[in-house]
Predict the 3D structure of the following.
Amino acid sequence: MPVSNSYQAQPDGYVRFDWSGNTIEGEFFSYVECGRDTDPKCGYIRPFDRGIRQQLIDNLQATHGIDLQKFTSQDDLITCDAFVTHKDLKAKHQVVVDAFEFIGESELTTERECIGNCRVDLLRRQYIVGVQLKQPQESLDNLNAEFLKWVTPFYTPLRYKRKWLTKYREGLLRFAIIVVLAVLGYFFLAK
C-alpha cells in the first residue's frame, strides 16, 4: 500500500511506543488513503532500532520468498522495515502497533547516530529505486541532499538478502523427507 510519497525525504513526524517491554522511538509516515486530516494516526512507523528494522525486513523476505536486494518495489521503500498503525494496512508479514504517541523532534531520546542510520537506510533505498525508475532529478537531488546530512563513515546498510538457511529451507526440508522415505523404503523392502 502506498504511503504519502515513496520518495519522501523526511518523515511526517516522530513517535514513541512500547515494544516487548521497552520504549521505542521511530519516524512516522502517513498512509495517503487515510488522509492526514481524517485519521492522522494511520500510517507506518519505522523504528530507529536497527535490529527491529532488520527483523521486519527478514519477515517480509521470508514470507514472500524474495530478496529485496533484487526485488524492491516502489511500495516497499518505506514499508519494508516498518510497523503498521492500523489493521487494515497490515500485510501478512507486518505487525500492528496501535498504541503510540506523537512527539516532537526535540523530544527524541534516541542517539542521533541511530536516528541517522535509520534515515540513511531509507534514503539509500529510495535513491537506488528512484534512479532505476528514472524519477525526476529534483526528487533524486532532495534525497541525496538529505542522505549527505545524515550519513557517517560508520554507516552499514541493512541486509536485503535472505540468509542462506532461510532461502533454501524448503528445498532442504524436501530433500530430508526424500532421504527419510528412501531409508524407510529400503528397510521395509529388505525384510
User: Anything to note?
Assistant: The chain has six helices and five strands.
